[in-house]
Amino acid sequence: MSLLKRPRRNRKSQVIRNLVEETQLRVENLIYPMFMLDGVNTQQEIKSMPGICRFSTDLLVKEITACLEVGVKSFCLFPLVNDSLKDSIGSHATKADNLYLEAIRKIKTSLPEACIMTDVALDPYSSDGHDGIVKDGKIINDETVSRLAEMAVMQAQAGADIIGPSDMMDGRIGSIRKALEEAGYTDTSIMSYTVKYASAFYGPFRDALDSAPKSGDKKTYQMNPANIREALLEAELDTEEGADILMVKPALSYLDVIQTLKQNSNLPIAAYNVSGEFSMIKAAAKAGYLDHDKVMNEVLLSIKRAGADIILTYFAKEFAMLSK
Ligand code: PBG
């Protein structure tokens, strides 16, 4: 054959392949989501998420210390709340001495270099298992938003670096930003769960927090997986309302959405590689169907290549240890 163009020339050795490599994934781009529970010296593995545990605060501090040593510096925390503390308005979320706020204070005091992202939504605290307040079978927006703003201010006060509203109520970014400004937390960032789909990939997470909806689903607030133009609308609103970072969730079935947001926004883009995406790989690797480490690297790289500057992933610690 007489070919002038042979793309294989740019793949002929590892050195050349490295020269032309377009995307690099670094541990600095990752945020590690972690689960916590009440008690002392307690650690429970989550059955559907092999290797991922709920930690009592003392062990959580130890685990964060170990992560910092391998280069993971950012953490997103989620609390398992005892059923007896749950009610319809998620009162426990704004109790000043609750497990979550106490843990944030403790972590930020003992490990100030750890960047702590918090979760703003009512589901871990709600007896209905919804992200908002339920009245007559409906998730009511505006009353929920004032609860969320209250939660966000208390988390900022406890020392959170980044507030992560994961609830998908309308107008919550603006209300939270305003409440933070009024309380003097002008430096507290907001990473909005801007485009959060009503996804079946959240199953293992709901096991971890025992937070599945008691009735119905989340389709009146989380987005329809069939839609992408709506993602641009959500991005526009969150940007106007003062979000610092826009997130797409889940990641793998939504790489097109990540790319679209990246092309249409000047804000940093994050993607949440969610629990179900993690568990699928763990299960396939355990069955011997896939090479765990290679698939993990490929998946995380693909999310970065699609346009995510930041990736929230349960693989963060393993990735960091592997790339040491
Ligand atoms: C709820 C919330 C969910 C996740 C993060 N925050 C689940 C849901 O919306 O039901 C899912 C994360 C994951 O699956 O890893 N506010």
Which structural class is indicated by helix and strand composition? alpha/beta
Distance between the termini: 44 Å
Low-confidence segments: none
Sum up the overall morphology in one term.
Answer: globular
How many helix segments? Answer: 11
Task: Tell me what the structure shows.
There is one protein chain. It contains eleven helices and twelve strands. The termini are far apart. α5 (172-182) links the parallel β8 and β9. α4 (141-158) crosses α5. The strands form two sheets. Strands 1-4-5-8-9-10-11-12 form an eight-stranded parallel beta barrel, surrounded by eight helices. Strands 6-7 form a two-stranded antiparallel ribbon. The mean pLDDT is 97. The relative contact order is 0.14. By secondary structure, the chain is α/β, with parallel strands linked by helices. The protein is globular. Bound molecules: ligand PBG. Ligand PBG is lined by residues 119, 121, 123, 131, 166-167, 202, 205-206, 218, 274-275. The site of ligand PBG has 12 residues, from α6.
